[in-house]
Amino acid sequence: MKRRHFLYAGAGAGIAIAGGALAFRGRPGYSAMAESFEITKTEAEWRSILTEQQFAVMRQEATERPYTSPLLEEKRAGTYNCAACALPLYASQTKYDSGTGWPSFYEALPNAVGTKEDNTLFLTRTECHCRRCGGHLGHIFDDGPPPTGKRHCINGVALTFSPKTA
To answer: Is 153 assigned a catalytic role?
Structure first.
């Protein structure tokens, strides 16, 4: 193997490690926090109401490990709400099994989520967040089922579930 192959392999490994660390540990200084939201709190206030994992995901754009959320298997009728501010975000009827390891929905409730461009991991994605508190939820992709063709790939720790009452 030539020296340049080692250099290329080393550079590629470094990029992959950096990208993985960014995806799973989150970014300090989440840019949506600079936006104006109806509900705002200091970092200390958010830390006092969110678990460590929820804080990492919702305030620092981390990603939970796939297949770890109990909500992945939730099948009851009801509503998925923001774990930080309780805003209803997704109706259970729009949930489907995408096979990705995260709760997935083809559509959010009206006026529930906001979006912004996310250029991390060397590609452009659409990040989605709670429109009321700015909490990071996940990303929206164009590979979902009808009728929207969208896949809202959402971190389960960013959600709570309220079952429909009879």
So the answer is: yes
> Does residue 16 register a pLDDT over 50?
no
Give one DSSP letter per residue of the chain, joined into a string: --HHHHHHHHHHHHHHHHHHHHHHH--SS-GGGGS--SS---HHHHHHHS-HHHHHHHHH---PPTT--GGGG--SSEEEEETTT--EEEEGGGEE--SSSS-EES-PPTT-EEEEEE-GGGS-EEEEEETTT--EEEEEES---TTT--EEEE-GGGEEEEEPP-
**Residue-wise pLDDT tens digits, 93-102:** 999 999 999 9
Catalytic residue (one of 82, 128, 133, 153) = 153
Single pTM value for the model: 0.80
